[in-house]
Amino acid sequence: MNLEAFRDYSLNNLKKDVLSGIVVGIIAIPLGLGFAIASGSTPVTGLYTTIVAGLLIAILGGSRFQIGGPTGAFVPVLLGIVLQFGYENLLIAGFMAGILLIIFAICKVGSLIKFFPKSIIIGFQSGIAVIIFSSQIPNFLGLHKIEKFEYFHLNIKEIFEKIHLVGIYSIITALLCLLIILTLSRFFPKIGGISYFLGIIASSLVSSFFFPDQIETIGSIYGQIPNQFPIPHFPEVTIEKILVLLPSSFVIAILVGLQSLLTARVADEMTSSKHNSKKELIGQGIVNIVSPLFYGMPAAGEIARTVTNIKNGASSPIAGITHALFVLLVLLFLAPYASHVALASLAPVLMVVSWHISKKEQFASILKERSGHSLVLMMTFMLTVFTNLTMGIGAGLCLSALLFLMKRMKDNQNQFKKAS
C-alpha cells in the first residue's frame, strides 16, 4: 500500500475516502455485470472480479487513486477467448497474464509506456469502442437468442438476419434507461456514473411493473445471482493448454499494463502525484493471478472509475478498498434483486461507456494530420474491428516502426547531401 498517502491523514480524509469508495462501488456494480455479460461470461463473475481486483490493487498497486476491476478494453479479447477456448481456459490465460505482468515489472517494461505510439493507443481504443457498442445492439433490440461470433462483421450480419425478431418492450426499456442516463448527465453532471445505476434501476422497475414477463432479465437468461463469495479453485492446467493460451495471455498482459499505466498517468496529472510503474505492474500481476482463483476475469486499472474516485475527494487507497467491500456487501445481501435487472437496461450503459472511451476527438485530430500517424491509426482501428486486437496492435507497431525507419533513412540521406 502507498504509505505516502497517509502522511497528515485526518478523519476528514477518511470520511471522503469512504464516501468516494461507496460512489465508485455503486458505479462499478452495473459495469461489472455488463462487462461480464459482454465478455461471454456469467454476470456474477463481473462482481467477483470487481471485489478481488478492487481490493488487491488498492493495497498492492503503485497509484493511491487507482480503481481496478473489469474494463471495456478487454471485452472483445475475452469474448474471443471464451468463444474459442471456453471460460475455464480464460481463467488459465488470465493467470498466465498475471505472471507475465510481474516479469514485465522486473524487466522495467513500465518505463517504455511513454514510447508507445499514441496513434496505436487511440486506434485500438476506438476499435474496442465500436465492438462494445455493436455488441449491445442485440440486447437493446431484444435479440437475446442470436448466435455470437468472434468477428464484428459476422455479428452485424447475424443482427440483420434476425432483425424481424426485435422486441418492442426491450426497445422501450432500453430507450427509457438511455433517456435517464443522458438527462441526469446533462442536468446533474456531478452525479457522474451514478446515472448508470439509476437508469438501470428505474427502467427495470418500469418494465417489471408495466410489462412483466415480456422482456429478458439477468435471471431469466443466466439464472439467479448467488449471494455468496466463491471458494477458491483452479482449473486443470496442462503443457498443451499453456502453449495454446500463451499468445492470448500475452495480449491480456499487454492490455492490462497499457490500461493500468495510462490510467495511473491520468491520475497523476489530475492530482500532481506520481505513481510507481514497477509497483503498479506487480500489483496488477498479483491481481490477475488471484482473480481466476475466484472465477474472476482479467482486470486492470479503469479510467472512468479512477477519475470518479479523484473527483469525489479520495486521497488514499482506503477509497479503493471501500469500493471493493461495498460491492462485496451488495453481493452478499442484495444479489437476488440483481437477477430482476432487464438486459435491455444494461445495453445503454455499455453503449454510453463505449462512446466515452472512443477517443473520438483525438481520432479526428490524428486523422486530419494526413500523415504517417493517420495511416497507423486507421490500420490499427480497422484491423482491431474486423479481425482482432492482436492483429490491430501488431500491424500498427510494425507499420509505425517501418515509417520511423523510412524517416530516419530520409533524414540520413538529407544530411549526407548537405555534407557533400
From TrEMBL:
<dbReference type="Pfam" id="PF00916">
    <property type="entry name" value="Sulfate_transp"/>
</dbReference>
<feature type="transmembrane region" description="Helical">
    <location>
        <begin position="191"/>
        <end position="211"/>
    </location>
</feature>
<feature type="transmembrane region" description="Helical">
    <location>
        <begin position="120"/>
        <end position="143"/>
    </location>
</feature>
<feature type="transmembrane region" description="Helical">
    <location>
        <begin position="67"/>
        <end position="85"/>
    </location>
</feature>
<dbReference type="GO" id="GO:0016020">
    <property type="term" value="C:membrane"/>
</dbReference>
<keyword id="KW-0812">Transmembrane</keyword>
<dbReference type="GO" id="GO:0055085">
    <property type="term" value="P:transmembrane transport"/>
</dbReference>
<protein>
    <submittedName>
        <fullName>SulP family inorganic anion transporter</fullName>
    </submittedName>
</protein>
<feature type="transmembrane region" description="Helical">
    <location>
        <begin position="378"/>
        <end position="405"/>
    </location>
</feature>
<feature type="transmembrane region" description="Helical">
    <location>
        <begin position="242"/>
        <end position="264"/>
    </location>
</feature>
<feature type="transmembrane region" description="Helical">
    <location>
        <begin position="18"/>
        <end position="38"/>
    </location>
</feature>
<feature type="transmembrane region" description="Helical">
    <location>
        <begin position="163"/>
        <end position="184"/>
    </location>
</feature>
<dbReference type="InterPro" id="IPR011547">
    <property type="entry name" value="SLC26A/SulP_dom"/>
</dbReference>
<keyword id="KW-1133">Transmembrane helix</keyword>
<feature type="transmembrane region" description="Helical">
    <location>
        <begin position="44"/>
        <end position="60"/>
    </location>
</feature>
<feature type="domain" description="SLC26A/SulP transporter">
    <location>
        <begin position="14"/>
        <end position="380"/>
    </location>
</feature>
<feature type="transmembrane region" description="Helical">
    <location>
        <begin position="91"/>
        <end position="113"/>
    </location>
</feature>
<feature type="transmembrane region" description="Helical">
    <location>
        <begin position="316"/>
        <end position="334"/>
    </location>
</feature>
<dbReference type="InterPro" id="IPR001902">
    <property type="entry name" value="SLC26A/SulP_fam"/>
</dbReference>
<keyword id="KW-0472">Membrane</keyword>
